[in-house]
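Revision sheet: structure tokens.
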Amino acid sequence: MQDRFDIKDKGIVITGGAGVLCGAMARELAARGAKVCVADYDDMRAHQVCKEIEADGGFALPVKIDVLERKTVQEAFICARDCLGQIDVLINGAGGNKKEATCAPPTTFFDLPEEAIRMVFDLNCVGTMIPSQIFGKHMAKQGQGVIINISSMNAFRPLTNIAAYSAAKSAISNFTQWFATYMAQRHSPNIRVNAIAPGFFLTEQNRFLLTDEKGELTPRGKTIIDHTPMGRFGDPDDLLGTLVWLISDAAKFVTGIVVPVDGGFSAFSGV
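Predicted:
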């Protein structure tokens, strides 16, 4: 019987691939037999992730990329296409928040510097759209492909203090739906675009908001745990089943959705 979840030999490019969450994705996909391109602004970390994958017998290609610079995205595309032989999947994982764009007291929203707001919005939203243009054009020509965007709980429920990040992730969810429709109607129904919306996972970008210097929960971190029915932060491995499903033929009639992986946070009213 055919394994509907089989992703062996698929060529997969992951932007932000050296990060905590996307690094776990890269390792899992390679372990399942996919050919993975770890594309990241930090090429040293990308090389390290690839070394770990290769040590476990997988195939991984490190590529330096700046998702806000079309030239480097185009170069990364050419390198990935030539080395992987084909590109079946793009995971738009590059993104993150910036402390200067948060308005935790005593800072107010009115004090947020424009450059910090632009950096967060551009990195998340524009940094998803530019790779989608370049890799999506290739998929349109070949008539098939999968694009996975990374949204956030902030797109479901805007959280206090992080206006720029919430707005940017909401834009990614909206773009996911728009792009799924565009690709299916204008190019091929065999091109699918979906998104994953992680709940609360400790990463380099949010650790300062959720834990203190001793690793103890901040009041904000405790509130999040109290409003997550499963009572914990997510582990990077918690994203992998959903990711494999969306990439594989098991989801071949699924496009234009945003899947929460959040321990129940989006389902809980707090009462």
